[in-house]
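Can anyone check this?
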Amino acid sequence: MLRCVRFLWLLCLLASPALSQTIVERLITPGPLSSSHARLESRCDSCHTSFQKAAQNSKCVACHTAVGSDISRGTGYHGRFAPARTAACKACHSDHKGRGYVLVRLDRRTFNHNFTDYPLTGGHARAACAGCHGPGNQYRKVARTCAACHSRVDPHRGQMSRDCQSCHDVSGWKQLLPFDHGQTGFALTGAHRQAACSSCHAGQRWKGLATTCISCHARDDAHKGSLGSNCAGCHSSASWRVSSFNHASTGFPLAGAHAAASCASCHGPNNAIRHPQRTCNGCHAKDDVHKGQNGTNCASCHNSRAWAQTSFDHDRMTQFPLRGAHRAAACQACHKQPYKVVKPPVACFGCHEADDTHKGGNGQDCDRCHVETSWKKVDFDHNTMTHFGLAGKHAQARCEACHTRPPSELKLSVECASCHAKDDVHGGKLGPACRNCHDANDWKTRVSFDHGLTRFPLLGKHASAQCAACHADRRFAAKGVTCADCHADDHHVGALGKPAACGRCHNAVDWKAWSFDHDTATRFALTGRHQGLICSACHARPGDPARLGDQCVDCHRRNDIHRGVFGEDCGRCHVTSSFSEIIMGNAR
């Protein structure tokens, strides 16, 4: 026996160095390798280091680099699950048990997916493993995007974005997340909120749809187009069958019995008569028992409450209410001829010309001085009887100071400039409405102006600025209402656009207290190292900021150590937190 052992050792010593597997290794191997390691059958040193069992793990991760990366970075199953991260690889993946032996012996029924980079929530928690991983053992290479798994059941047939999670979530594929339809320019109100998407977006058509009512509801138009296409004039989104039309907007409010009348009673069947008669006689001629003897103004005696009900109220039903001595006058005193023949005048001068002691010198507007209670009673209050109340210095002025000629010859204007044009130091450039700044008490000293009435209300630091700082002369000509009109762009020198839109970042409270949300106001959200950069780091040249590119290479082309070999989509491997940090998982 001892001779045999010595013989074996001699064979080991005499074995050719060119052979990868020694005679002893072939003699002491526990068994054949699995089919996935079969190519290493003759190279034991690929997985083993003589007399160093602890070195076996380093041999494994040297080949299985992705697993090694997970362990070192704490990602994936081997990086998140402590036993997998610290135990020997052979504890779970033992070999030398034959070609048919499966190295990955994972129990899918008990596997805790939370130890992976993709925890299963919602509907995913109920999904079968084979639904995503298939029958094989390629667990790491399964895609994580919705579209990668669900494209075959995409009801939109690729017409929508592949960003499925913007509308769907994992709790239920058919349960949609809230969507602000107002972003499309067509906010959903009323019954539109309960409508199914497909009722308007038939055939998965999501762009170019008309937004008019008639484009969708033409088949529901009971008027067959006779009232045009502006359905919203009568209908609302609350209910198609409920009509809310303000007939007063046509110039003919519906009052009394008219309010209860059906549309067809005036407009005919299917609203064939679009513009029916508006006068009483136009519709009610057949009901006129006077046979036209009293003219066609039926409303002088009749009202819309009931045709048979007649009443005549001179105050309400004519343009000449009876007051004072007029109320005691006999009808024949004014209506000397039948109403249908001669309509009496309503102006004082029309009846009282013979009583005018002024012989027309003060015009024909008698009631400016006289009252109806008695012709001889004269009362003239300039404040209430004209459009120009006398206040301040005007109350002290003599009548002749303004009324240089009789009112019948010269009608005065109520604008300040009509009398004070010679006193206007602004040369008429500020218009005739002097009262916007001056008052009648003192023309020169009591000056007040509300700048809020202009296109440029004074806010912040502007409120304390001197007028002359913006208005160079007494004509108060403004330089303009934009920031750039007064504030030269000395800091950005046009790098943020010309002319400078200062108001996008600065405000009138403090020029240096600026704020600009790059994430929401532009198409380029600032993440990673981009956060905190000064504007000039990217916006270094004059021009329109909107014309800057949003691709990595637009700014970092000089940092591309690959010299364009891998294309211009740097984001496939790099992240914004560090240009040197590479995530190969992003590559496709």
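Reply from J.R.: I decoded it. The radius of gyration is 47 Å.
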